[in-house]
Structure formats: structure tokens, C-alpha cells
Specification:
The complex is a heterotetramer of chains A (222), B (263), C (61) and D (208). With 263 residues, chain B is an all-alpha fold. The two termini of chain B are 45 Å apart. The longest helix of chain B is centred in the last third of the chain and has 56 residues. With 208 residues, chain D is an alpha/beta fold. Classes of the chains: A mainly alpha (222), B mainly alpha (263), C mainly alpha (61), D alpha/beta (208). Chains B and C meet through helix 1, helix 2, helix 3 and helix 6 of B and helix 1 of C. Chain C: This is Heme exporter protein D.
């Protein structure tokens, strides 16, 4: 346990120090959301209808685009070799790294959601619904995105390739995340059904993500 | 005292230490006068008492642009004149400018709520300030992304100047976009027709906030110079260790273990 | 002295309070930063690391 | 050093064949090292010195052959009882010297030795709070060596360990290796330069 705690602590520390990218994700989120009205027009009624979709897209892109360095940095400086050799199972180490990333880069997105909800003319309940669905759904994004980050190490390519690989995998999360928040705002569905599916997706990705990432990393070593 | 004299950081620090108390005192006095006058100002016949928000909103909005102007001049100083303090000035100004811009947005939104019924309206003026705020944050992210300040300085200077050129273009586009979608903005400040009873406190507050910025900026520049000294001393310490490492073990051991305990 | 701030008093008070708070944070940040930098310089000097000029790094006057 | 030695250990490989990117690097390689022995792997560039170390570390899978550690800890794999010191330092420039070292100590676990004393041994003890990014290449290597001292592992796999070290650093390092061997440890080092300690030579890839 101390080993995993140490890994989480280290990754969060690096993310928050100079040169770390934790807050750039939030800034990206903010920028994407601010761009939307320029494309669809400043009509507040329209914006409040599109609000959950815009917020979800922004959060999706922000959390995936910050992921591509998740394993790359450790691979480049040799840390990944030592992590692979250690007495901690690689699956757990991967899960710890993803958790650290979610804490440093995913949580701030959720904290920023109310402010952005204000810009998009969402009322209190709608904003709370979006924040709640993001809280339940972003772990799924991080843990599926982690697979792409591991593949990026294997293939020696990051950036866009990773996005192309991972974005299709995140479609279910997007569907049920937006559906659950829309259910609160306009109905006619209940909030419960899509939200529980969203939670289930998160739980499944918590299991699949680390195993797939570890398998990919093991084969990618050279 | 010319600009050349200020090039020496040590002399700059000495000057700062002498000037800062006076600046702070002047800021406090002017702020007090401004706040007093703002409290006495009459209500607007249309907006009622909410017009009082103007006395802090407008100075913050003015500073949000003024600080970018200061940073642009400092960036010219970095790129063209290679003034050694220019990038210090640019770096120190960014977070302060971002804070004032944030306040302009916040007070604007609090002012807008009684007027529009919502906290946020994609009004041309507010939207432009929001974009300015994003650019401040981006600039701060750039400063933070690179460990070596002198390397970050060039990139930040280019970005600041590009921003300065782009800001009017952005403002124009946003205005155009806005009129495309809705009639002109809701708040109608009479411009120069503003009544004297509003204008004087507003001017006093604007000057007071500008002084506040100058005070904070000088203090932040001083911190930045000291931070760079810490950095260069640490680098010296690192390189000195290479020579002394063979004989060091004994004499410094108790010192080191004490530090590790603290960590 | 009492002012009548009308029906929107809370917005006026909130905006003044927000400005006061943010400026207080700025001042606090600047002062704490100054203290921590001078502190670190002093520690470095105690360890015998000095500047080339031989002058104290924290010396201001 | 007492805790290291659970009786005599023996690290050996038989009939090792290594294929990288479709190309056979070496085949039919045998090697062995007992407690207190060092093996210096020599050979020309590209002969597979690094590959051999990575095979032992479990970072590569041999195309044929076996590697075993007899007499080691029964519940741990070979890789978990190895230290691997590669070309890359596994250090984070944003973290301080102490943070880097204590992270690896906490993460790798097992039997630990005091981090500050290890730093003193490699001559980095008064850089404890400096960011690792400020260190020179030689100093970073010293910090990596401190990891070998802090976290106890019986097998050291060293890839060009003396790279970037100055003469004093090489002497210091030779002393550390001797200490490790005296405690019953084993060393497999890929090297061009002389190691500075008594070692058995393992030549791969023909005559240099």
C-alpha cells in the first residue's frame, strides 16, 4: 500500500509543480466551452439547451488530451523500467497512476463546472446534474484513456494517434453522461437509469483499464 | 533615475525598498477618498444604487487592459532592448493582471444580474474581457510550463505582443458577432455624458487602482528577482558540490540529517 | 452614516467584498512570497553559498 | 549488509538467445555468478550487452534459454530481487533530490537503508533539497547510485555505470561495489571502461 501511495503522491506533486500540466487541462476546458457560443451564437435559451453537451465534450477532450504523457514521461526517463521490475503488480501501479492523474487533472474539471454552467445559462439543478455526471463519468474517461496512453508508449507515438484510438472508446460514456444530465433538464427519461449505467461504465473501466494498460506496457518494453 | 540605472537588479531592489512604503500610503489615501466619494454619489435614475458597482468595475476593467499594455512594453523590452528587468516585469504583471481581469468579470456579472436577470450575458464587452482573461491564464500557464525563466521569457514576450496586436481584432470580431445575433448591448453608460457626480469618484478610483497595481507590481518584481537569486544560488550550490563531494561527507553530515528530518 | 442601497444591496455588497477579498489575497501572496524568498536566501547564505559580488543577496539598501 | 545474504546465491543463464526486431543479437549464451562475484560483460557496440541486462531484469523475454537465481528469496521473482541501473536515470527534475530518493525507497520497498546516509556516501548529502533538475549528469548518476544503496537488492545490473562519473566518483563507486560484493551481493555490469574491481569477464558477440 505504501508503494502505491508513494506513486500517487509523486505523480500529483509533479503535476502541480512548475512544468506540470495539471491546471492546463482546466484552462483547455474553459477555452473550449467559451469557444462554443461563438459558433452557435449567444442565444441563452439555445446555450442552456446545449449546455450539458458542450460541458461534456469539453471535459472529454480536456481529460483525454492531458493523458498522452501519462506513461510517456516515465518511459523516457527510465522510471517505467523500474516500475515494471518492482514488487508492485504493474496493473496496480497503472491504476495508481491513473488515479493520481484523475485527482490532479480530472477533479479540477468538475470544480470548474459550476462557473462554466453560469456562462452557458444553466440553472443550479442542471449544473449540479452535469457536475454529478462528470464526477461519475470522468474516472471512466481517465481509465479508458490510460489504455491509449499505454499504447502510445508501445508505438512511440503520442498526441493525435492516441486521441483517434481512444475517442471511439469513450462514446458510451458520452452518451450516458449527456443523457443523464439532459434527463434532469428536459426529461422525459428519469435521471436514475442513464446515471446508473454511467456508474457501471466507470466501474467496468476501473477493472479493464489497468489490465489492458499493463498488458500493453509489458509487450511494449524494449 | 533613468532606465539604464534600473538595469542593475540590486539598484532596482534598493529603489523599490525606498519607494514602496510611499506608494502603498498614496494608494490607501486615494482609495479611502475614492470609496468615500463613491458612497456619497447619488443613485442613477435608471439603475438605482447598483451604479455603485461601476466605481469598482470600471477601474478593474481599465486595469485589465492597462496591465496587458504594461506587459507588452515589457515584452518589447525583452525582445528589442534586452533590458534585464523586462522579463521580470512581464512575469510579475501576469498574475496581477489576471486577478484584476477576473474582478472585472465578476463585478460585471454581479452588475449584470439586476440589469439582465442573468449573471452572464454574451455581451460584446464582457465577452471580450473573458477572452482577455483566458489569454492571461494561458500566459501564466506558459510561464509555469518552463522551468528556466530566461527561456520562458522569449516565448511569453512573443505571445504577449501577438496578443496585444490581436486584442483589437478580437474585440472587433466579437462586436460584429454580437450585433449579428442581437441588438446592441444592454448597459448604456452615457460615455462622456456621464454626470460629474459619477465621473469624479470614478476617476479617483481609477487612479487609486492604478497605484495599487504599481505597488503590487513593484513588490512582485522584487519577489521575482529574489526568486531568481535563490535559483542561481541553488545552481551554484549544485555545481560546487561536485568539487567538495569527496571531503564533504564528514563535516556536513549532521547538518544534512537535520534537514532530512525536517523534510 | 447609512446608505440605502436599494433592492439589489446584496449584489453591491458582494461585488465590493469580492474585490476586497481578491486584493487581500494578492497582497497576502506578495508578502508571503517575499518572506519565503528572503528566508531561502538566508538559509543558502548560512550554508556558505554567496553571490559572486560577495554582497549579501538579501541586502536591499 | 547482513540482511542481504540468505546463504549462497547463484545467478545463472543457459542457452540464452536474444532476438530484437527480427535480428538475432546473440545465441547460446551461458553465464553464471555466485555470491560476492562480479561479471563484466564486454563486447563491441550492438553486441547485446544492454539486451542481456534487460533479459535478466525481465524487461525483455529471451527467445530461448533460461535465467535463474538459486538461493534467492523463494516468493520473489528474479526481477524483484534486481536493481537495474540503465542509461536513463529514472529521476524527475521537478522533484528534489530527497523526494526522488524517498519515492523509490517507498515504491520499491523491501529492506531499506537510511536515505540520508546513502546520499552522504555518494557525496550528495548537502543537495538534499535541490531540485534534481539542477544536478549535472554526474550528480544525477550519483543520485541513481544512492538508490542502489537505499533499497537493498542482491543483484545489481549495471549498464555503463561509470558513465559521466569523474575519477573521484569512479573510486567512490568501486568502493560501493566492493562493499556490495563483500555482503554477498552479485553484480552484472555491461561496460567499456574497466570497472575498478575484480571481475570475471564475459565476452559476447565475438572479438571486439
Amino acid at each position: 500500500m505504501t508503494a502505491l501511495a508513494a506513486l500517487i503522491r509523486r505523480d500529483i506533486r509533479i503535476a502541480l509543480r512548475v512544468g506540470g500540466g495539471a491546471l492546463i487541462g482546466v484552462l483547455f476546458f474553459l477555452t473550449v466551452v467559451v469557444l462554443m457560443p461563438f459558433a452557435v451564437g449567444p442565444d441563452l435559451a439555445l446555450l442552456s439547451r446545449l449546455g450539458p453537451a458542450i460541458l461534456w465534450l469539453g471535459a472529454l477532450l480536456a481529460s483525454l488530451l492531458t493523458l498522452d504523457r501519462l506513461f510517456m514521461a516515465d518511459h523516457e526517463d527510465g522510471s517505467l523500467d523500474l516500475i515494471t521490475m518492482s514488487r508492485t503488480p504493474l496493473e496496480l501501479a497503472c491504476a495508481a497512476k491513473a488515479l493520481a492523474h484523475w485527482l490532479a487533472a480530472g477533479l479540477p474539471l468538475i470544480v470548474a463546472t459550476p462557473v462554466l454552467g453560469l456562462l452557458l445559462n444553466l440553472d443550479m439543478i442542471a449544473t449540479a446534474a452535469v457536475a454529478l455526471t462528470l464526477l461519475a463519468g470522468t474516472p471512466a474517461l481517465t481509465f479508458t484513456g490510460m489504455i491509449g496512453a499505454a499504447l502510445a508508449v508501445t508505438l512511440h507515438r503520442g498526441g493525435l494517434l492516441m486521441a483517434v484510438l481512444v475517442l471511439p472508446l469513450s462514446i458510451p460514456v458520452l452518451i450516458f453522461g449527456v443523457a443523464a444530465s439532459q434527463a434532469v433538464i428536459v426529461g422525459p427519461m428519469t435521471f436514475g437509469a442513464p446515471f446508473s449505467i454511467l456508474c457501471a461504465l466507470s466501474l467496468v473501466s476501473l477493472v479493464i483499464g489497468p489490465f489492458a494498460a499493463a498488458a500493453s506496457l509489458r509487450h511494449g518494453l524494449d | 533615475m533613468t532606465l539604464i540605472d534600473l538595469a542593475n537588479p540590486t539598484r532596482f531592489l534598493a529603489l523599490t525598498a525606498r519607494v514602496l512604503p510611499w506608494l502603498a500610503a498614496a494608494t490607501i489615501i486615494l482609495l479611502t477618498i475614492g470609496l468615500y466619494q463613491a458612497a456619497l454619489a447619488p443613485d442613477d435614475y435608471q439603475q438605482g444604487a447598483t451604479v455603485k458597482i461601476m466605481f469598482i468595475h470600471v477601474p478593474n476593467a481599465w486595469l485589465s487592459m492597462f496591465v496587458w499594455g504594461v506587459m507588452s512594453i515589457a515584452s518589447l523590452g525583452t525582445l528589442v532592448w534586452r533590458h534585464p528587468l523586462a522579463d521580470v516585469a512581464a512575469k510579475a504583471a501576469a498574475p496581477i493582471g489576471a486577478a484584476f481581469t477576473f474582478l472585472a468579470l465578476l463585478t460585471g456579472s454581479l452588475w449584470g444580474r439586476p440589469m439582465w436577470g442573468t449573471y452572464w450575458e454574451w455581451d460584446a464587452r464582457l465577452t471580450s474581457v473573458l477572452i482577455l482573461f483566458l489569454m492571461y491564464l494561458g500566459l501564466m500557464a506558459l510561464w509555469r510550463a518552463v522551468d528556466d525563466p530566461s527561456r520562458a521569457a522569449r516565448a511569453a514576450a512573443v505571445l504577449t505582443l501577438v496578443g496585444a496586436i490581436n486584442l483589437p481584432i478580437i474585440k472587433f470580431s466579437v462586436d460584429w458577432w454580437n450585433t449579428l445575433h442581437q441588438p446592441a448591448s444592454v448597459i448604456r453608460m452615457g460615455g462622456s455624458a456621464l454626470d460629474k457626480s459619477f465621473l469624479i469618484p470614478l476617476l479617483v478610483m481609477a487612479v487609486a487602482f492604478t497605484l495599487l497595481f504599481v505597488t503590487l507590481h513593484l513588490a512582485a518584481m522584487r519577489n521575482e528577482i529574489l526568486r531568481r537569486r535563490v535559483r542561481s544560488l541553488q545552481m551554484m550550490q549544485a555545481s560546487r558540490m561536485a568539487f567538495s563531494s569527496d571531503m564533504a561527507a564528514g563535516s556536513r553530515e549532521d547538518n544534512a540529517s537535520k534537514e532530512a528530518g525536517a523534510a | 452614516m447609512t446608505m440605502s442601497l436599494g433592492p439589489y444591496a446584496s449584489f453591491i455588497v458582494a461585488s465590493y467584498a469580492a474585490v476586497a477579498l481578491v486584493i487581500a489575497i494578492l497582497i497576502g501572496w506578495v508578502m508571503l512570497d517575499y518572506r519565503s524568498q528572503t528566508q531561502r536566501l538566508r538559509e543558502l547564505e548560512q550554508r556558505g553559498i554567496t553571490r559572486r559580488s560577495g554582497r549579501s543577496a538579501t541586502e536591499l539598501r | 549488509m547482513s540482511g542481504l545474504n540468505q546463504g549462497d546465491m547463484r545467478l545463472s543463464g543457459h542457452g540464452l538467445r536474444c532476438v530484437r526486431g527480427g535480428r538475432e543479437v546473440f545465441a547460446g549464451l551461458d553465464f553464471a555468478a555466485g555470491s560476492g562475484e562480479a561479471v563484466a560483460v564486454v563486447g563491441r557496440n550492438g553486441s547485446g550487452k544492454t539486451s542481456l541486462l534487460r533479459l535478466i531484469a525481465g524487461l525483455l523475454v529471451p527467445a530461448a534459454g533460461t535465467i535463474a537465481l538459486e538461493g534467492g528469496h523463494s516468493e520473489l521473482t528474479l526481477a524483484e530481487q534486481c536493481h537495474y541501473l540503465g542509461h536513463r536515470d529514472a529521476l524527475k527534475p521537478a522533484l528534489s533530490v530527497a523526494e526522488n530518493l524517498t519515492f523509490w525507497a517507498d515504491f520499491l520497498g523491501g529492506e531499506l537503508f537510511d536515505a540520508v546516509e546513502s546520499l552522504a556516501k555518494v557525496g550528495l548529502d548537502h543537495a538534499i533539497h535541490l531540485p534534481a533538475g539542477f544536478l549535472s549528469a554526474g550528480q544525477r548518476r550519483r543520485l541513481s547510485l544512492a538508490r542502489l544503496l537505499t533499497v537493498r537488492r542482491p543483484v545489481w545490473l549495471l549498464d555503463e555505470p561509470t558513465n559521466a562519473l569523474d575519477v573521484a566518483g569512479q573510486d567512490m563507486f568501486a568502493g560501493l561495489m566492493r562493499e556490495h560484493l563483500a555482503g554477498g551481493g552479485m553484480i552484472v555490469a555491461a561496460t567499456h571502461a574497466p570497472l575498478g574491481i575484480e571481475s570475471r569477464e564475459l565476452r559476447i558477440g565475438g572479438v571486439a
